[in-house]
Amino acid sequence: QVQLVESGGGLVQAGGSLRLSCAVSTRSFNSYAMGWFRQAPGKERECVVAISKSGGITYYADSVKGRITISRDNAKNTVYLQMNSLKPEDTAVYYCAAKLLLGADSLRTRATAYDYWGQGTQVTVSS
What is the 8-class DSSP label of residue 31? Predict the structure, then answer.
């Protein structure tokens, strides 16, 4: 069973920064595409960023481009989400997700495509 554990959420003022981490318990982390999703109250879960197995392909939602960066360290089985210039509309529970992908390097952006999920970490941005 693959387990994902997020950390790094919290309360921050608008314009501030946070770094989220997601540690993945698997021997084959480099076979998993990873994604960060968020869900605000009353809204659907949305893909914020995603990264391929190698880290060579990334996806960013338009709402976060230029402010948020995803990266992964395959040696540490960890994916990171660096969030800068945070806005109150970034407030949500952030979830890390993993998708086992064999074959060509690729990623996924639909929540239903992912196999494993973390428990979520709250990010609150005050105005």
Answer: G
Residue 59 and residue 63: Cα distance in Å, rounded? 12
Q: State how far the Cα of 53 lies from the Cα of 39, in Å rounded to an integer.
A: 24
* Structure tokens belonging to residue 15: 């314009």
Give dist(CA 24, CA 60) in Å, integer.
21
Query: Encoding tokens for residue 19?
Result: 């770094």
Q: Give the model confidence (pLDDT) of 2-21 as tens digits.
A: 999 999 999 999 999 999 99
pLDDT tens per residue across span 57-104: 999 999 999 999 999 999 999 999 999 999 999 999 999 999 999 989
